[in-house]
């Protein structure tokens, strides 16, 4: 199965100059946990990705003002990407290797044309592969959780 068959095409995106507050509101209104950050609404050249975790760890934990902080200051500017013609298995391997839950799909011109989320993989991959992907993505979270549990 190819990425273009499972990716979300109804993109919600933001630009680097948008505020963190705008990004958070978009995420809340559309029920998504990440937004591709694109150059503009016409070309949609991928410039990064911003997640709800980025906003929480930077804005909330840093006691910054969301309405005064630009997305460019909190986004990942070189995200892991795939192409619509990649296989779902290729995308899954990228998620495992880089421990990410979402991967923007870009075309040959670098435009964001979709996004693949862990949920998209879960709906289409065999259960054993989904479990492996979840375990690999979650590896870095275990020590922090175990440390909190010991307190």
Provide a short characterization of the protein structure.
With 151 residues, the protein is of the alpha+beta class. The protein has helices at residues 3-6, 20-30, 52-60, 88-98, 118-124, 127-138, 142-150; strands at residues 34-38, 46-51, 102-106, 112-117.
Task: Describe this structure as you would to a colleague.
There is one protein chain. The chain has helices at residues 3-6, 20-30, 52-60, 88-98, 118-124, 127-138, 142-150, and strands at residues 34-38, 46-51, 102-106, 112-117. It has 151 residues and is α+β, with helices and mostly antiparallel strands. The protein has one domain (3-140): CBS-domain (Roll), CATH 3.10.580.10. Strands 1-2 form a two-stranded antiparallel ribbon. Helix 4 (88-98) packs parallel to helix 6. It is globular, with a radius of gyration of 16 Å. It starts with a helix and ends with a helix. The model is unreliable at 142-151 (pLDDT under 50).
Write the layout of secondary structure elements.
Elements (H helix, E strand, L loop, with lengths): L2 H4 L13 H11 L3 E5 L7 E6 H9 L27 H11 L3 E5 L5 E6 H7 L2 H12 L3 H9 L1
Antiparallel strand pairs: 1-2, 3-4
**How many H/I helices?**
7
**In angstroms, what separates the terminal alpha carbons?**
45 Å
Morphology? globular
Query: Can you tell me the CATH superfamily?
Result: CBS-domain
Let me know the largest β-sheet: 2 strands, antiparallel
